[in-house]
Specification:
Elements: E1 9-13, H1 17-27, E2 32-36, H2 40-53, E3 59-61, H3 65-70, E4 77-80, H4 86-95, E5 104-107, H5 113-124, E6 129-136, H6 138-144, E7 147-151, H7 154-167, H8 186-215, H9 220-231, H10 240-250, H11 270-273, H12 278-288, H13 294-307, H14 309-319, H15 333-366, H16 372-378, H17 388-399, H18 401-406, H19 418-440, H20 446-457, H21 465-476
Parallel strand pairs: 1-2, 1-4, 2-3, 4-5, 5-6
Antiparallel strand pairs: 6-7
Helix pairs in contact: 1-6, 8-12, 8-13, 8-15, 9-10, 13-20, 15-19, 15-20, 16-17, 19-20
Length: 505
Protein backbone atom coordinates (compact mmCIF):
# COMPACT_ATOMS: atom_id res chain seq x y z
CA UNK A 1 0.00 0.00 0.00
CA UNK A 2 2.99 2.30 0.25
CA UNK A 3 3.61 4.77 3.04
CA UNK A 4 2.23 8.10 4.11
CA UNK A 5 5.79 9.37 3.90
CA UNK A 6 5.44 9.16 0.09
CA UNK A 7 2.24 11.22 -0.13
CA UNK A 8 2.57 14.11 -2.55
CA UNK A 9 -1.12 15.01 -2.91
CA UNK A 10 -4.20 14.99 -0.69
CA UNK A 11 -7.67 16.47 -0.62
CA UNK A 12 -8.86 18.68 2.23
CA UNK A 13 -12.65 18.56 2.54
CA UNK A 14 -13.79 21.33 4.84
CA UNK A 15 -11.79 24.55 4.73
CA UNK A 16 -12.86 26.40 7.87
CA UNK A 17 -10.44 27.53 10.56
CA UNK A 18 -9.25 23.99 11.40
CA UNK A 19 -9.26 22.58 7.86
CA UNK A 20 -7.73 25.73 6.43
CA UNK A 21 -4.94 25.66 8.99
CA UNK A 22 -4.16 22.01 8.30
CA UNK A 23 -4.26 22.58 4.54
CA UNK A 24 -1.46 25.16 4.86
CA UNK A 25 0.41 22.90 7.28
CA UNK A 26 0.37 20.04 4.75
CA UNK A 27 1.37 22.41 1.95
CA UNK A 28 4.42 23.49 3.93
CA UNK A 29 5.49 19.84 3.87
CA UNK A 30 5.55 19.96 0.05
CA UNK A 31 2.16 18.34 -0.42
CA UNK A 32 -0.26 19.57 -3.09
CA UNK A 33 -3.62 20.11 -1.41
CA UNK A 34 -6.87 19.94 -3.39
CA UNK A 35 -9.62 21.92 -1.66
CA UNK A 36 -13.33 21.24 -1.38
CA UNK A 37 -15.90 23.18 0.64
CA UNK A 38 -19.52 24.14 -0.03
CA UNK A 39 -18.56 27.71 0.84
CA UNK A 40 -16.62 29.53 -1.86
CA UNK A 41 -16.03 32.24 0.70
CA UNK A 42 -14.18 29.81 2.99
CA UNK A 43 -11.93 28.57 0.19
CA UNK A 44 -11.23 32.05 -1.14
CA UNK A 45 -10.32 33.25 2.35
CA UNK A 46 -7.96 30.29 2.74
CA UNK A 47 -6.31 31.01 -0.60
CA UNK A 48 -5.72 34.63 0.49
CA UNK A 49 -4.17 33.42 3.75
CA UNK A 50 -1.98 31.02 1.80
CA UNK A 51 -0.50 33.92 -0.15
CA UNK A 52 0.83 35.35 3.11
CA UNK A 53 2.25 31.92 3.97
CA UNK A 54 3.69 31.64 0.46
CA UNK A 55 2.03 28.26 -0.11
CA UNK A 56 -0.83 29.44 -2.33
CA UNK A 57 0.72 27.63 -5.31
CA UNK A 58 0.28 24.34 -3.40
CA UNK A 59 -3.47 24.81 -2.84
CA UNK A 60 -6.00 24.10 -5.59
CA UNK A 61 -9.75 24.72 -5.60
CA UNK A 62 -12.08 22.10 -7.13
CA UNK A 63 -15.72 22.42 -8.02
CA UNK A 64 -16.96 18.82 -7.61
CA UNK A 65 -15.94 15.43 -6.22
CA UNK A 66 -15.16 13.93 -9.63
CA UNK A 67 -12.68 16.68 -10.42
CA UNK A 68 -11.33 16.54 -6.87
CA UNK A 69 -10.66 12.80 -7.10
CA UNK A 70 -9.07 13.09 -10.53
CA UNK A 71 -6.55 15.56 -9.09
CA UNK A 72 -5.12 12.96 -6.67
CA UNK A 73 -2.60 10.14 -6.96
CA UNK A 74 -3.31 6.52 -6.07
CA UNK A 75 -4.04 5.68 -3.33
CA UNK A 76 -6.13 8.80 -2.87
CA UNK A 77 -5.98 10.49 0.54
CA UNK A 78 -8.86 12.61 1.82
CA UNK A 79 -8.73 14.65 5.02
CA UNK A 80 -12.12 15.55 6.51
CA UNK A 81 -12.49 18.67 8.65
CA UNK A 82 -16.26 18.76 8.91
CA UNK A 83 -19.00 19.44 11.47
CA UNK A 84 -19.96 16.34 13.43
CA UNK A 85 -23.07 14.40 12.45
CA UNK A 86 -24.60 13.59 9.07
CA UNK A 87 -22.39 16.00 7.11
CA UNK A 88 -19.66 13.36 7.06
CA UNK A 89 -22.14 10.74 5.81
CA UNK A 90 -23.23 13.00 2.97
CA UNK A 91 -19.65 13.74 1.95
CA UNK A 92 -18.73 10.05 2.07
CA UNK A 93 -21.76 9.16 -0.05
CA UNK A 94 -20.74 11.79 -2.61
CA UNK A 95 -17.20 10.45 -2.78
CA UNK A 96 -18.09 6.75 -2.94
CA UNK A 97 -18.55 6.50 -6.76
CA UNK A 98 -14.95 7.72 -7.21
CA UNK A 99 -13.23 5.73 -4.46
CA UNK A 100 -11.12 2.64 -5.08
CA UNK A 101 -9.61 -0.09 -3.00
CA UNK A 102 -6.72 1.25 -0.92
CA UNK A 103 -7.93 4.87 -0.82
CA UNK A 104 -7.69 6.48 2.63
CA UNK A 105 -10.01 8.82 4.50
CA UNK A 106 -8.53 10.62 7.50
CA UNK A 107 -11.49 12.02 9.45
CA UNK A 108 -10.11 14.90 11.53
CA UNK A 109 -13.51 16.16 12.68
CA UNK A 110 -14.68 16.15 16.30
CA UNK A 111 -16.87 13.22 15.30
CA UNK A 112 -18.78 10.81 17.53
CA UNK A 113 -16.90 7.52 17.70
CA UNK A 114 -20.00 5.47 16.77
CA UNK A 115 -20.34 7.43 13.52
CA UNK A 116 -16.67 6.71 12.87
CA UNK A 117 -17.08 2.97 13.39
CA UNK A 118 -20.20 2.86 11.23
CA UNK A 119 -18.33 4.56 8.38
CA UNK A 120 -15.34 2.28 8.87
CA UNK A 121 -17.66 -0.69 8.40
CA UNK A 122 -19.20 0.84 5.29
CA UNK A 123 -15.77 1.58 3.77
CA UNK A 124 -14.25 -1.75 4.73
CA UNK A 125 -16.41 -3.73 2.32
CA UNK A 126 -14.92 -1.71 -0.57
CA UNK A 127 -11.37 -1.94 0.74
CA UNK A 128 -11.32 1.77 1.62
CA UNK A 129 -9.34 2.79 4.70
CA UNK A 130 -11.13 5.04 7.20
CA UNK A 131 -9.16 6.49 10.13
CA UNK A 132 -10.88 8.53 12.83
CA UNK A 133 -8.36 11.10 14.03
CA UNK A 134 -9.01 13.50 16.89
CA UNK A 135 -7.22 16.82 16.42
CA UNK A 136 -6.55 19.10 19.37
CA UNK A 137 -5.01 22.48 20.02
CA UNK A 138 -7.47 24.86 18.38
CA UNK A 139 -7.08 26.69 15.11
CA UNK A 140 -3.61 28.00 16.02
CA UNK A 141 -2.32 24.45 16.48
CA UNK A 142 -4.07 23.27 13.32
CA UNK A 143 -1.93 25.80 11.51
CA UNK A 144 1.38 25.22 13.31
CA UNK A 145 1.12 21.60 14.46
CA UNK A 146 -1.73 19.98 16.42
CA UNK A 147 -1.93 16.98 18.68
CA UNK A 148 -3.27 14.15 16.48
CA UNK A 149 -5.04 11.06 17.84
CA UNK A 150 -5.69 8.46 15.11
CA UNK A 151 -7.62 5.23 15.54
CA UNK A 152 -8.26 2.39 13.10
CA UNK A 153 -6.78 -0.85 11.84
CA UNK A 154 -3.02 -1.31 12.01
CA UNK A 155 -2.42 -1.25 8.24
CA UNK A 156 -4.23 2.06 7.83
CA UNK A 157 -2.46 3.59 10.82
CA UNK A 158 0.92 2.39 9.59
CA UNK A 159 0.21 4.07 6.27
CA UNK A 160 -0.90 7.42 7.70
CA UNK A 161 1.42 7.82 10.71
CA UNK A 162 4.55 8.94 8.79
CA UNK A 163 2.55 11.88 7.46
CA UNK A 164 1.05 12.70 10.85
CA UNK A 165 4.47 12.55 12.49
CA UNK A 166 5.65 15.24 10.07
CA UNK A 167 2.87 17.71 10.83
CA UNK A 168 1.92 16.97 14.44
CA UNK A 169 3.04 19.11 17.36
CA UNK A 170 6.36 18.16 18.95
CA UNK A 171 6.97 17.77 22.68
CA UNK A 172 9.87 19.33 24.59
CA UNK A 173 12.16 16.54 23.34
CA UNK A 174 11.13 16.97 19.71
CA UNK A 175 8.95 13.85 19.58
CA UNK A 176 5.73 14.04 17.54
CA UNK A 177 2.53 14.21 19.58
CA UNK A 178 0.76 11.48 17.67
CA UNK A 179 0.62 7.70 17.70
CA UNK A 180 -1.75 4.75 17.46
CA UNK A 181 -4.56 5.38 19.93
CA UNK A 182 -6.19 2.02 19.23
CA UNK A 183 -8.50 0.13 16.90
CA UNK A 184 -11.87 1.18 15.49
CA UNK A 185 -13.23 4.44 16.85
CA UNK A 186 -10.60 4.72 19.60
CA UNK A 187 -9.05 7.86 18.10
CA UNK A 188 -12.26 9.84 18.25
CA UNK A 189 -13.26 8.30 21.58
CA UNK A 190 -9.99 9.33 23.24
CA UNK A 191 -10.29 12.83 21.76
CA UNK A 192 -13.88 13.04 23.04
CA UNK A 193 -12.72 12.24 26.58
CA UNK A 194 -9.79 14.64 26.13
CA UNK A 195 -12.40 17.36 25.66
CA UNK A 196 -14.30 16.28 28.78
CA UNK A 197 -11.05 16.51 30.78
CA UNK A 198 -10.46 19.89 29.16
CA UNK A 199 -13.82 21.22 30.34
CA UNK A 200 -13.19 20.07 33.92
CA UNK A 201 -9.78 21.72 33.94
CA UNK A 202 -11.13 24.94 32.41
CA UNK A 203 -13.81 25.20 35.09
CA UNK A 204 -11.43 24.55 38.01
CA UNK A 205 -9.02 27.18 36.68
CA UNK A 206 -11.82 29.67 36.01
CA UNK A 207 -13.21 29.12 39.52
CA UNK A 208 -9.75 29.91 40.93
CA UNK A 209 -9.60 33.04 38.75
CA UNK A 210 -12.96 34.18 40.17
CA UNK A 211 -11.84 33.60 43.75
CA UNK A 212 -8.67 35.64 43.18
CA UNK A 213 -10.28 38.46 41.17
CA UNK A 214 -13.62 38.78 42.96
CA UNK A 215 -12.94 37.17 46.32
CA UNK A 216 -9.45 38.43 47.10
CA UNK A 217 -9.82 41.58 44.99
CA UNK A 218 -6.59 41.07 43.07
CA UNK A 219 -5.96 43.07 39.89
CA UNK A 220 -5.82 41.52 36.42
CA UNK A 221 -2.05 41.82 36.37
CA UNK A 222 -1.69 40.31 39.84
CA UNK A 223 -3.87 37.35 38.90
CA UNK A 224 -1.98 36.93 35.63
CA UNK A 225 1.35 36.87 37.45
CA UNK A 226 0.09 34.19 39.85
CA UNK A 227 -0.96 31.96 36.95
CA UNK A 228 2.43 32.56 35.32
CA UNK A 229 4.14 31.41 38.51
CA UNK A 230 1.92 28.32 38.76
CA UNK A 231 2.79 27.43 35.18
CA UNK A 232 6.52 27.67 35.86
CA UNK A 233 6.88 25.02 38.58
CA UNK A 234 5.32 22.20 40.57
CA UNK A 235 2.29 20.11 39.69
CA UNK A 236 0.91 22.66 37.22
CA UNK A 237 4.20 23.00 35.35
CA UNK A 238 3.71 23.78 31.65
CA UNK A 239 -0.05 23.43 31.74
CA UNK A 240 -1.48 24.97 28.56
CA UNK A 241 -4.69 26.21 30.19
CA UNK A 242 -2.80 27.78 33.10
CA UNK A 243 -0.47 29.47 30.62
CA UNK A 244 -3.22 31.01 28.50
CA UNK A 245 -5.20 32.06 31.60
CA UNK A 246 -2.22 34.12 32.70
CA UNK A 247 -1.96 35.66 29.24
CA UNK A 248 -5.71 36.35 29.05
CA UNK A 249 -5.68 38.02 32.47
CA UNK A 250 -3.04 40.54 31.39
CA UNK A 251 -4.04 41.11 27.76
CA UNK A 252 -4.99 44.70 26.86
CA UNK A 253 -6.46 46.22 23.72
CA UNK A 254 -3.59 47.84 21.79
CA UNK A 255 -5.54 51.06 21.24
CA UNK A 256 -7.65 51.61 24.37
CA UNK A 257 -5.35 49.92 26.90
CA UNK A 258 -8.44 48.30 28.44
CA UNK A 259 -8.26 44.67 29.55
CA UNK A 260 -9.87 42.45 26.92
CA UNK A 261 -11.13 40.01 29.57
CA UNK A 262 -13.27 42.72 31.18
CA UNK A 263 -15.51 42.88 28.12
CA UNK A 264 -16.00 39.11 27.72
CA UNK A 265 -19.49 37.90 28.63
CA UNK A 266 -19.98 34.92 30.96
CA UNK A 267 -21.65 32.82 28.27
CA UNK A 268 -20.30 29.52 26.88
CA UNK A 269 -22.64 28.29 24.14
CA UNK A 270 -20.67 25.64 22.22
CA UNK A 271 -22.34 22.70 23.99
CA UNK A 272 -25.84 24.06 23.30
CA UNK A 273 -25.63 25.52 19.78
CA UNK A 274 -24.35 22.27 18.25
CA UNK A 275 -20.89 23.57 17.40
CA UNK A 276 -19.28 21.16 19.87
CA UNK A 277 -20.67 17.75 20.84
CA UNK A 278 -17.76 16.21 22.70
CA UNK A 279 -18.59 17.78 26.07
CA UNK A 280 -22.06 16.25 26.00
CA UNK A 281 -20.82 12.88 24.74
CA UNK A 282 -18.00 12.59 27.29
CA UNK A 283 -20.47 13.05 30.13
CA UNK A 284 -22.89 10.58 28.56
CA UNK A 285 -20.03 8.09 28.32
CA UNK A 286 -19.15 8.52 31.99
CA UNK A 287 -22.71 7.57 32.91
CA UNK A 288 -22.91 4.76 30.33
CA UNK A 289 -19.63 3.27 31.59
CA UNK A 290 -20.72 3.66 35.24
CA UNK A 291 -17.62 5.73 35.98
CA UNK A 292 -18.11 8.68 38.37
CA UNK A 293 -16.71 11.82 36.75
CA UNK A 294 -18.08 14.78 38.74
CA UNK A 295 -15.22 17.16 37.92
CA UNK A 296 -16.18 16.83 34.25
CA UNK A 297 -19.93 16.75 34.80
CA UNK A 298 -20.23 19.62 37.29
CA UNK A 299 -18.20 21.80 34.93
CA UNK A 300 -20.53 20.88 32.08
CA UNK A 301 -23.68 21.81 34.00
CA UNK A 302 -22.33 25.30 34.74
CA UNK A 303 -21.47 25.70 31.05
CA UNK A 304 -25.06 24.78 30.16
CA UNK A 305 -26.44 27.34 32.61
CA UNK A 306 -24.04 29.99 31.33
CA UNK A 307 -25.25 29.51 27.75
CA UNK A 308 -28.83 30.43 28.66
CA UNK A 309 -28.19 34.04 29.62
CA UNK A 310 -31.82 35.00 29.00
CA UNK A 311 -33.04 32.32 31.39
CA UNK A 312 -30.57 33.50 34.03
CA UNK A 313 -31.85 37.06 33.66
CA UNK A 314 -35.44 35.89 34.05
CA UNK A 315 -34.69 33.63 37.03
CA UNK A 316 -32.83 36.46 38.76
CA UNK A 317 -35.85 38.70 38.27
CA UNK A 318 -38.28 36.10 39.64
CA UNK A 319 -36.00 35.39 42.62
CA UNK A 320 -35.74 39.12 43.29
CA UNK A 321 -31.96 39.02 42.95
CA UNK A 322 -29.11 36.55 43.13
CA UNK A 323 -26.35 35.64 45.57
CA UNK A 324 -23.50 37.96 44.54
CA UNK A 325 -19.98 36.83 45.36
CA UNK A 326 -18.52 38.19 48.56
CA UNK A 327 -15.03 39.26 49.44
CA UNK A 328 -13.01 36.44 50.98
CA UNK A 329 -11.15 37.30 54.15
CA UNK A 330 -8.00 35.32 54.87
CA UNK A 331 -5.35 35.84 57.52
CA UNK A 332 -2.50 34.80 55.23
CA UNK A 333 -3.09 35.65 51.58
CA UNK A 334 0.06 33.92 50.32
CA UNK A 335 -0.85 30.70 52.15
CA UNK A 336 -4.40 30.81 50.75
CA UNK A 337 -3.12 31.35 47.20
CA UNK A 338 -0.92 28.27 47.69
CA UNK A 339 -4.04 26.39 48.85
CA UNK A 340 -5.74 27.61 45.70
CA UNK A 341 -2.88 26.31 43.54
CA UNK A 342 -3.11 22.93 45.22
CA UNK A 343 -6.91 22.92 44.75
CA UNK A 344 -6.57 23.61 41.03
CA UNK A 345 -3.85 20.97 40.72
CA UNK A 346 -5.86 18.24 42.44
CA UNK A 347 -8.98 19.10 40.43
CA UNK A 348 -7.07 18.97 37.13
CA UNK A 349 -5.48 15.69 38.20
CA UNK A 350 -8.90 14.34 39.16
CA UNK A 351 -10.19 15.29 35.70
CA UNK A 352 -7.41 13.16 34.17
CA UNK A 353 -8.17 10.29 36.56
CA UNK A 354 -11.87 10.35 35.72
CA UNK A 355 -11.29 10.67 31.97
CA UNK A 356 -8.73 7.87 31.77
CA UNK A 357 -10.95 5.63 33.90
CA UNK A 358 -13.78 6.20 31.39
CA UNK A 359 -11.45 5.32 28.50
CA UNK A 360 -10.32 2.13 30.20
CA UNK A 361 -13.88 1.02 30.89
CA UNK A 362 -14.92 1.65 27.27
CA UNK A 363 -11.76 -0.03 25.98
CA UNK A 364 -12.57 -3.21 27.90
CA UNK A 365 -16.07 -3.18 26.42
CA UNK A 366 -15.16 -2.41 22.81
CA UNK A 367 -11.78 -4.23 22.61
CA UNK A 368 -9.94 -1.31 21.02
CA UNK A 369 -6.58 -2.25 22.56
CA UNK A 370 -5.96 1.37 23.52
CA UNK A 371 -2.24 2.11 23.81
CA UNK A 372 -2.09 4.34 26.90
CA UNK A 373 1.59 5.12 26.41
CA UNK A 374 0.74 6.50 22.97
CA UNK A 375 -2.25 8.41 24.37
CA UNK A 376 0.04 10.07 26.89
CA UNK A 377 2.47 11.03 24.10
CA UNK A 378 -0.42 12.42 22.03
CA UNK A 379 -1.27 14.66 25.00
CA UNK A 380 2.30 15.88 25.63
CA UNK A 381 2.10 18.87 23.29
CA UNK A 382 -0.15 20.77 20.92
CA UNK A 383 -3.33 19.90 22.80
CA UNK A 384 -5.52 21.81 25.24
CA UNK A 385 -4.90 19.46 28.18
CA UNK A 386 -1.11 19.54 27.88
CA UNK A 387 0.04 19.49 31.50
CA UNK A 388 3.66 18.42 31.96
CA UNK A 389 3.49 18.25 35.75
CA UNK A 390 0.46 15.95 35.75
CA UNK A 391 1.60 13.91 32.77
CA UNK A 392 4.99 13.24 34.37
CA UNK A 393 3.14 11.88 37.42
CA UNK A 394 1.02 9.61 35.20
CA UNK A 395 3.88 8.59 32.90
CA UNK A 396 5.15 5.51 34.83
CA UNK A 397 1.60 4.17 35.13
CA UNK A 398 0.46 4.77 31.56
CA UNK A 399 3.72 3.66 29.98
CA UNK A 400 3.65 0.54 32.15
CA UNK A 401 0.03 -0.38 31.45
CA UNK A 402 0.95 -3.70 29.81
CA UNK A 403 2.70 -4.86 32.99
CA UNK A 404 -0.33 -3.79 35.03
CA UNK A 405 -2.67 -5.72 32.73
CA UNK A 406 -0.46 -8.81 32.98
CA UNK A 407 -1.28 -9.11 36.68
CA UNK A 408 -4.35 -11.06 37.87
CA UNK A 409 -7.34 -8.69 37.82
CA UNK A 410 -4.99 -5.95 36.58
CA UNK A 411 -6.68 -2.61 36.05
CA UNK A 412 -5.43 0.80 35.07
CA UNK A 413 -7.89 2.50 37.46
CA UNK A 414 -5.76 5.46 38.50
CA UNK A 415 -7.33 5.57 41.97
CA UNK A 416 -5.50 2.28 42.67
CA UNK A 417 -2.07 3.64 41.74
CA UNK A 418 -0.17 4.71 44.91
CA UNK A 419 1.64 7.66 43.30
CA UNK A 420 -1.61 9.12 41.99
CA UNK A 421 -3.49 8.40 45.22
CA UNK A 422 -0.77 10.13 47.26
CA UNK A 423 -0.93 13.22 45.05
CA UNK A 424 -4.71 13.41 45.39
CA UNK A 425 -4.57 12.81 49.13
CA UNK A 426 -1.80 15.34 49.67
CA UNK A 427 -3.80 18.20 48.16
CA UNK A 428 -7.09 17.32 49.87
CA UNK A 429 -6.67 19.70 52.88
CA UNK A 430 -5.97 22.66 50.60
CA UNK A 431 -8.91 21.79 48.36
CA UNK A 432 -11.21 21.59 51.37
CA UNK A 433 -10.12 24.98 52.69
CA UNK A 434 -10.64 26.62 49.29
CA UNK A 435 -14.09 25.09 48.76
CA UNK A 436 -15.19 26.12 52.26
CA UNK A 437 -14.07 29.70 51.65
CA UNK A 438 -15.69 29.69 48.23
CA UNK A 439 -19.03 28.45 49.55
CA UNK A 440 -18.89 30.90 52.45
CA UNK A 441 -18.42 33.73 49.95
CA UNK A 442 -21.15 32.51 47.54
CA UNK A 443 -18.66 31.74 44.78
CA UNK A 444 -19.57 29.14 42.16
CA UNK A 445 -17.08 26.29 42.61
CA UNK A 446 -18.66 23.27 40.87
CA UNK A 447 -15.48 21.60 39.62
CA UNK A 448 -13.51 22.28 42.80
CA UNK A 449 -16.44 21.24 44.99
CA UNK A 450 -17.25 18.24 42.82
CA UNK A 451 -13.64 17.08 43.11
CA UNK A 452 -13.77 17.40 46.91
CA UNK A 453 -16.90 15.23 47.12
CA UNK A 454 -15.43 12.79 44.60
CA UNK A 455 -12.35 12.16 46.71
CA UNK A 456 -14.55 11.55 49.73
CA UNK A 457 -17.05 9.15 48.21
CA UNK A 458 -14.68 7.06 46.06
CA UNK A 459 -12.58 6.27 49.14
CA UNK A 460 -15.35 5.87 51.72
CA UNK A 461 -16.87 2.58 52.93
CA UNK A 462 -19.67 4.35 54.83
CA UNK A 463 -21.82 6.32 52.42
CA UNK A 464 -25.31 7.73 52.88
CA UNK A 465 -26.39 5.38 50.08
CA UNK A 466 -27.02 2.98 52.98
CA UNK A 467 -30.35 4.81 53.35
CA UNK A 468 -30.89 4.91 49.59
CA UNK A 469 -30.51 1.12 49.41
CA UNK A 470 -33.04 0.70 52.22
CA UNK A 471 -35.46 3.02 50.42
CA UNK A 472 -35.12 0.99 47.23
CA UNK A 473 -35.84 -2.21 49.12
CA UNK A 474 -38.84 -0.59 50.86
CA UNK A 475 -40.74 0.42 47.72
CA UNK A 476 -39.23 -1.85 45.09
CA UNK A 477 -38.11 -5.08 46.79
CA UNK A 478 -34.68 -4.48 45.23
CA UNK A 479 -32.88 -6.34 48.04
CA UNK A 480 -29.68 -5.35 49.83
CA UNK A 481 -26.41 -6.74 51.16
CA UNK A 482 -25.81 -6.94 54.90
CA UNK A 483 -23.02 -5.13 56.68
CA UNK A 484 -20.32 -7.50 57.81
CA UNK A 485 -21.01 -10.10 55.11
CA UNK A 486 -17.65 -11.68 54.21
CA UNK A 487 -18.83 -13.21 50.91
CA UNK A 488 -16.55 -11.82 48.13
CA UNK A 489 -19.57 -11.09 45.94
CA UNK A 490 -20.43 -8.06 48.11
CA UNK A 491 -17.35 -6.35 46.64
CA UNK A 492 -18.99 -6.44 43.20
CA UNK A 493 -21.79 -4.26 41.79
CA UNK A 494 -24.34 -7.07 42.06
CA UNK A 495 -27.87 -7.12 43.52
CA UNK A 496 -28.12 -8.03 47.18
CA UNK A 497 -29.61 -11.23 48.61
CA UNK A 498 -31.76 -9.86 51.43
CA UNK A 499 -35.19 -8.26 51.63
CA UNK A 500 -37.12 -6.91 54.61
CA UNK A 501 -40.88 -6.54 54.45
CA UNK A 502 -40.99 -2.93 55.57
CA UNK A 503 -44.70 -2.62 54.89
CA UNK A 504 -47.12 -5.38 53.91
CA UNK A 505 -48.44 -5.19 50.35
Amino acid sequence: MGSGADIKKLAMIGCGSMGGGMAQLFAEQGIDVSLSDPSDEAINYLLEQAKTSKVDHMLHKHKDYKELCESLDSPKLFVFSLPHGDVGDKVLAGLMPYLEKGDVILDCANEHWENTERRQGKCCVKGIRYVGCGVSGGYQAARRGPSMCPGGDDDSLNFILPLLEKVAAKDAKGRPCTGKAGLGGAGHYVKMIHNGIEHGMMSAISEAWGIMAWGLGLSNDEVGSIFEKWNSEGGLLNTFLIDITGKISKMKHPNSNDYVLNEVMDKVVQDVCGEEGTGVWSNEEGVAQHVPAPTLTAAHYMRLASAEYGKRVKAKTVFGGDWPVQKIEVSDKAAFIEDLRQAVYVSCLAAFVQGINIIESADREHKWLVDYAQVLQIWRGGCIIQADGIEELLKPVLEGYKEIYAKPDGTLNLLFQPTVANALKGAFPSLKRVVLKGIEGDHCVPALGGTLDYLKYVTSTDLVTQMSEAQLDFFGNHKYDKKGDKDPYVLLPELGKYHFEWKPA
